[in-house]
Amino acid sequence: MDTSTWKTRAFGWSLVACTFIYIANNILNVGFEFPGATLFYALIGLSDGNAPKDSGAGVLSTFQFFSYPAGVLAAVLFSLKTPDRTLRGDAASMTGITNFIIRVAFWSVVLIGIADALISFLRVEGFLDVLVGENLTTELGRSRFRAPYFHFPLVILSILIATRVKSLGFHWLGLLIVVSELLIVITRFVFSYEQAYQGDLVRFWYGALFLFSSAYTLLEDGHVRVDVFYTGFSDRMKGLVNAVGSIILGTTLCWTIMIFGMWDKLSIINSPIANLEVSQSGFGMYVKFWMAGFLAIFAVTMAVQFASTMLEGVADFRGDPGKREIGGSAAH
């Protein structure tokens, strides 16, 4: 394996590793009150902030800080220890990671959407207390009960389904959006019936379709390119543009979303999730905090897919064999 190959692979896997380490540290900070990696700078005197008096916080912060170089080191060692792997092989592995995350997210929004809409329907029509009792009905009216005891088991079920079902299922989600919108029209204009949960369900599924399918669309080169020069480039030059663009434009966008959206508990992604925020529309669905999480899923899947695209671009630039052909219906 030549030097350029393992360095490029190490760089790509470093991007992937740091992405997941950042998400893991964010979960530790928000969900488990960890001090955060930035506190390490105060420990060594490189920050104006006060060093923690609790030695345990200092140890945790040090652990979080060094998790990033540890991830980079692991990426380098993996690249060195697997000399037979190609750039395109690693790119395919990264795409597999992205697809698994998207499959889990897809099944989660389908199952949670149907189940939560059903609960909202039963609540607004007064049937829920008859079926499950007054106490459980009251608990289901609180997001801090419905999310951990009703939504989260459905996420676990979605993980199990995603390990067996390999298709992404975007066309089915699109069909569900059309059906749910059609039901709104029929119930509104034929039966003069409309409730908040109906509109919540459409927005919930539409937001998921738009944000979850972005990484797959990137893989299939389906995003609209507004360009004058790219179409006329050779495959080698297109590979260079894709590789450089994936890092300078794509990866920086994803990290901008993750940093500003998950920097602390008050950030625009963390705050709704930490507070299990729901809409104020009476008996609507309890999924607003999940929609904030859609942005995190978008950023993570796109970051991993941009790393994959970078490796593919370098392989195209070098003229490596095995170039993946993009279908004409997907490319725009």
From TrEMBL:
Q: Where in the cell is it found?
A: Cell inner membrane; Cell membrane
| Keyword set, alphabetical order | Cell inner membrane, Cell membrane, Membrane, Transmembrane, Transmembrane helix, Transport
Query: Superkingdom of the source?
Result: Bacteria
Write down a Pfam family by its short name: DctQ
GO cellular component entries: plasma membrane
The transmembrane residues are: 12-44, 56-80, 100-122, 149-165, 172-191, 203-219, 240-263, 283-304
The reply to whether Protease figures as a keyword in the UniProt entry is no
Residue ranges occupied by any Tripartite ATP-independent periplasmic transporters DctQ component domain in the UniProt entry: 183-314
Q: What is its main location?
A: membrane
Membrane topology reported for the UniProt record: Multi-pass membrane protein
Q: Name one GO molecular function term.
A: transmembrane transporter activity
InterPro entries registered for this protein in UniProt: DctQ
Q: What is the similarity comment for this entry?
A: Belongs to the TRAP transporter small permease family.
Instruction: Sum up the protein's function in the record's words.
Output: Part of the tripartite ATP-independent periplasmic (TRAP) transport system.
* Quaternary structure and partners: The complex comprises the extracytoplasmic solute receptor protein and the two transmembrane proteins.
Q: What is this protein called?
A: TRAP transporter small permease protein
* Species: Pacificispira spongiicola
